[in-house]
Amino acid sequence: MFSYPQTIGSGTGRGWAQVSPAISYAFGILSWRALNFVIGLGRRIIEWVWQRIKALFVITARFQKGDQAYDWLMLLLAEERVWASSCDFKVVTRSSRRRWGIKQSPHALYGSPTPSSLKAGDHGSTPSRTEYVPQYRSPHLFRYKGHWFEIDCTSEREGHSRGFRGRGGHRGSQRRSVYSFRMSTLNDLVESARKLYLEFSQPHVTIRQPIQPYQEGNWSHVVTKYRRPLDSLIIEESTKTMLLDDVKEFLGSESWYTDRGIPYRRGYLLHGPPGTGKTATIYTLAGELGLEIYALTMSEGLINDAGLKALIRAVPSHAILLLEDIDCVSHSLRIEQDEAMNDPQSRPVSKSAVTLSGLLNAIDGVGTEQGRLIFCTTNHLNHLDPALLRPGRMDVKVEYKAASQAQARTLFTSFFADHTGSSLSLHNNTTKPSPESAAVAAAEVEELAHEFSSIIPPHEFIIPDLQGYLFLHRKDPQAAVNGVQEWVDAKMKERNERKQRMIAKRKKRVGVISEAMKMRK
Ligand SMILES: Nc1ncnc2c1ncn2[C@@H]1O[C@H](COP(=O)(O)OP(=O)(O)OP(=O)(O)O)[C@@H](O)[C@H]1O
């Protein structure tokens, strides 16, 4: 009797049913792995081909943060609104002149004052500006003058991984890949960026300061100030003209120096009491001549010889290297000597980590002979080592003093120049003064300026002191003249009292030290 192998069949069917999920699972894994392998291989092949294409056809230009070209490029990219579609921002309350092209609501740009800001003394007249600064974490493709470019950012410290890592003083080097067969495209981009930067920074003076680690010669901390008109600098006209002409002549005589084998650099030493306009002179000259300032303050004591050398080497030609408080360098040696001799009268002063030989080597070193203008300032000329003052290092020396009567007069006139039509003969008159009445008022200001300056004792007050006083009477020049004698007397009395207190303090200190020395003997 034929019986259909139901049981067998059903048994076999059950077996297959048990085995097939495992097989299909294994098959699934295998095919998934195979697919992954194929995708990975495909990706690698594409990458390999892309690298070959890049190596053959793409020109890569690197821009280093801290270098001028980096700033040119950044400005051009901001102007081209390359980051307009960025989704990653740093929100800052400082204001910069860069136009990132980010759409913001008007409220975001000038935030309305908050109750806490009002409490803190901000009465809402100058609300703080918030700015959305795009972060450059991902590569950007952009088109400029018909050519495609890619901008990518990498950190040199962190190897060659992607992403911008400019935190904590890390160097951020920008790599830009140019999709073009021609070098001329790259040149064109850099030249356009340079021109744009020059045009953009014309009304400003750029001051660069170094960031740590100084050994890397990184000047990426940038401060900009509006150019100061030459007239606003109140020093002797002859000094102003001499400095300006000297710098101009130097900048135009490179071949003269190279033909004679003389290092193409020029040193200027501006010395005098604090607040007499030394730094203001350098900023004014830089603005007038369109030069950037690379500023180092020697009294901060953070920079050592190696750092100074690297920083000075990184300053480009036709720029001003400003070394402020240069006496601190020589002074560190003096103090060490004083301490060694156990001199009780040596006063504590700011000490620089830079040694005199380190400074001299840095000034004379490689790179400084390429059109470098070195401006040094000091409050203590007598603390400077003669080696530093030698011609070739310091070629021009200018002494600054507290204001002369002529300076006080110029200050008064320029201070009230805008008020000639309103504060004197046309006081309380809201209509525009006629040229005749303005001329009369100007003559009156001149007369008052003469009277004012005759009361100011020569070389006793610095310009900021006088500015502070005039500011109190900024709407009334006559009142400024009326009160000046009383102000001078009060200030002189205060100064004398302070001097007496200091003398007494020093005497006491010397007494204590000599007593201690006697006891030791
Ligand atoms: N002769 C001047 N003409 C115009 N402004 C001046 C003059 N002297 C000082 N000032 C003003 O006083 C302030 C301090 O001046 P500045 O910093 O140039 O002094 P300094 O001599 O460099 O002082 P320090 O030795 O402390 O560095 C500045 O705001 C500057 O504008």
Automatic annotation (TrEMBL):
PANTHER family in alphabetical order: BCS1 AAA-TYPE ATPASE
Please state the protein's primary subcellular location: mitochondrion
**Limits of the BCS1 N-terminal domain:** 27-233
Q: Please give the InterPro entries that the UniProt record associates with this protein.
A: AAA+_ATPase, AAA_lid_BCS1, ATPase_AAA_core, ATPase_AAA_CS, BCS1_N, Mitochondrial_chaperone_BCS1, P-loop_NTPase
Q: What is this protein called?
A: p-loop containing nucleoside triphosphate hydrolase protein
Q: Where in the cell is it found?
A: Mitochondrion inner membrane
| Family to which this protein belongs | Belongs to the AAA ATPase family. BCS1 subfamily.
Query: What is one term from the GO cellular component aspect held by the record?
Result: mitochondrial inner membrane
Q: Where is the AAA+ ATPase domain?
A: 264-404
- The answer on whether this UniProt entry bears the keyword Transmembrane helix reads yes
Instruction: List keywords of the entry alphabetically.
Output: ATP-binding, Hydrolase, Membrane, Mitochondrion, Mitochondrion inner membrane, Nucleotide-binding, Transmembrane, Transmembrane helix
Q: Which reaction does it catalyse?
A: ATP + H2O = ADP + phosphate + H(+)
Query: Which top-level group of life is the source organism from?
Result: Eukaryota
One GO MF term on file is: ATP hydrolysis activity
Locate the region Disordered: 106-132
Membrane topology summary: Single-pass membrane protein
